[in-house]
Design brief:
alpha/beta; four-stranded antiparallel β-sheet
Length: 604
């Protein structure tokens, strides 16, 4: 898809894509671009033409007042032009940073709004990495288009002026200069195409190296990297990734070096031919000394001018290709609702049905579920248990809309969840996952998932989750920042405290369907027992799904579904399954024996 889009989108298409956003967000940046273009186009010709006028006057009438007037006007024009350029550059740079930031915000918003299965897709991750570079680097992608567009139009106008002067000197000289420029441009174009073709080799390696770098420097991994001495292994992996990147970049720079050598040879040939010709014309009387200065200045200026023009155009052409990566990512489509959107099911007691659901993760052929059917009545507390890989977490991903079934459907209160807008669908669930990810924000913001919140509700959620005593001991109470990523005095909670924080977040949201995915995995047995005993009060009659490896929790649930290889092998109440004497009973008794051996009483 990516390469195909690169062929479809032209330089102008990508450039105007950036310009449209510049005009939308900061139209004054376009004004700065136009003013700078005019200043860039005028600036070089001031001191190309003026020396000839002064020298011709000195060799002719030698009018001092005329010369002084010309020089004074020239200085005024030069001052205005250079002031305009510097003012435009200063303002434009500030706008560039702001515009790149806004592109970045759009990118991050898009990433957050993508269907969840994209987040677990390697190709999408690589594309996001490339798109992020497009917005974060001031010299490539979005920043490159703005940077090289700033002066390239002025160079094009100046090119026309230089062409007119050199054409007066001799058409053959102009032809040679243009041919050498085109030749070098073609060589550089091929070099850049090769460079672009190797991007897909470099980016995945850079993404992997970036992860290793984060592990090496992020305090979140600090305990493991020290206790288990991961340092040597990680550094070796980093060195391996660096060697891979270096090998590709060496091949790229080798081709670029060949182009530079050809360019140097053509420049030497040009200078010898052109300066020899105008020197001969001057000495033979075919050219005045003023014209000699004019053409010498014009030729040297034209060489530098063309180098600048070629560089900016080549970089602009290349950097617009990076915009493709950004546009590719922004054009990823979420699954659309085929029928008219359905309203969100109302009420705090909602029934759930899985109707002959098939599901396999994208890119795999192995089915997690095949013809799965499950009815969860409104207000029921269902325990979902089974060994690792049984399909418990996949069940939750399907119910919450993170993934869609391959076949069959899931309904809530009779409404097919695929007909509910996904952002509305998320409102139905208060979920506590096994892997807790607190944010670098204060406790209230973590609980409310927002900068605005009802403080009384936050305290209520914190108390019900068993975290109130901890918060009360803190100097800043609910305003205490977590983690040291943003605030130097950020608090590091324990694993159990993080799980209580996540539970408080779920309670604050107060969704009509409660899902607890291993919510007590990091809690001690006493805290676990307290959570179980208050479980019914926490869910307050709502439909709840409880996933746990600790089967003592299932006694608090109305029904138990024992999964194995994506199939419900046993279903019933805790006592019914214990009486059945099957795999659930065996697993429960095994765990009960462990608890009893460690001084805890667990009854069937």
């Amino acid at each position: 898809m990516n390469q195909e889009n690169k062929m479809k989108r032209s330089l102008m298409s990508n450039a105007f894509y950036v310009y449209r956003h510049m005009m939308k967000w900061h139209p004054e940046s376009i004004t700065m671009l136009v003013l700078n273009t005019l200043a860039v186009a005028v600036a070089p010709f001031i001191w190309v033409v003026v020396p000839k006028l002064v020298i011709d006057e000195l060799q002719g009438g030698a009018r001092l007042d005329w010369i002084i007037t010309v020089l004074a006007v020239t200085l005024i024009i030069t001052g205005v032009v250079h002031f305009t350029k510097e003012a435009c550059i200063g303002i434009y740079r500030m706008k560039m940073s702001r515009i790149r930031m806004l592109f970045g915000l759009e990118l991050h918003e898009k990433a957050m709004n993508l269907d969840y299965h994209y987040a677990e897709n390697v190709d999408t991750q690589n594309l996001l990495h490339k798109a992020t570079r497009t917005t974060s680097n001031p010299n490539h992608g979005i920043g490159g288009v703005m940077k090289y567009s700033f002066s390239i139009l002025g160079y094009l106008i100046g090119f026309i002026g230089y062409t007119g002067i050199i054409l007066r000197l001799h058409p053959v000289i102009l032809a040679y200069l243009l041919v050498s420029v085109v030749l070098v441009y073609r060589l550089k174009s091929k070099s850049d195409q090769y460079r672009l073709s190797r991007e897909d080799d470099i980016r995945p390696v850079e993404r992997k190296a970036g992860y290793i770098a984060r592990v090496l420097t992020d305090f979140e991994f600090g305990k493991d990297t020290r206790i288990y001495q991961f340092k040597n292994m990680l550094l070796k992996k980093m060195e391996h990734f660096n060697i891979e990147t270096e090998a590709v970049e060496k091949e790229i720079h080798s081709k670029q070096l060949k182009v530079e050598l050809v360019d140097t040879g053509l420049v030497l040939l040009r200078d010898g031919m052109v300066y020899g010709y105008i020197t001969y014309m001057t000495l033979s009387g075919g050219m005045s000394f003023g014209d000699f200065i004019l053409y010498t200045t014009a030729i040297s200026g034209f060489a530098v001018w063309m180098q600048e023009l070629m560089r900016d155009y080549t970089e602009l052409r290349l950097t617009t290709r990076y915009v493709d990566d950004y546009r590719d990512f922004m054009e990823i489509k979420n699954e659309e609702i085929k029928d008219e959107p359905s309203p969100l099911p109302a009420g705090n007691r909602l029934s759930i049905n899985f109707h002959n659901v098939d599901f396999a993760y994208p890119g795999t052929e192995k089915h997690v579920f095949k013809s799965l059917s499950l009815h969860i009545p409104a207000g029921q507390k269902l325990a979902v248990v089974g060994i690792n890989g049984a399909g418990k977490t996949s069940l939750i991903k399907l119910l919450t809309g993170l993934y869609r079934p391959s076949q069959g459907k899931i309904t809530i209160e009779g409404t097919d969840i695929t007909t509910i807008p996904i952002t509305e669908h998320y409102k139905l669930f208060s979920v506590v996952y096994q892997e807790i990810k607190p944010l670098a924000a204060n406790i209230s913001e973590n609980v409310a998932a927002s900068e605005t919140y009802n403080e009384n509700w936050v305290w209520d959620a914190v108390q019900r989750a068993g975290l109130k005593d901890k918060v009360n001991r803190l100097t800043k109470k609910l305003d205490t920042p977590l983690l040291k990523v943003i605030e130097d005095d950020g608090l590091e909670l324990s694993g159990g405290e993080n799980q209580k924080l996540a539970l408080a977040r779920a309670l604050y949201k107060n969704g009509p369907i409660v899902i607890l995915d291993e919510p007590t995995a990091a809690l001690d047995p006493i805290a676990e027992k307290d959570i179980y005993e208050s479980f019914s009060d926490m869910i307050d009659g709502r439909t709840a799904i409880f996933i746990s490896h600790r089967l003592s929790s299932t006694k608090f649930c109305d029904k138990v579904a024992y999964f194995e290889n994506g199939i419900i092998k046993e279903y019933g109440t805790h006592h019914e399954l214990m009486a059945l004497g099957g795999k659930y009973a065996h697993m429960f008794n095994t765990q009960a024996k462990y608890y009893q051996e460690n001084g805890m009483e667990v009854s069937a």
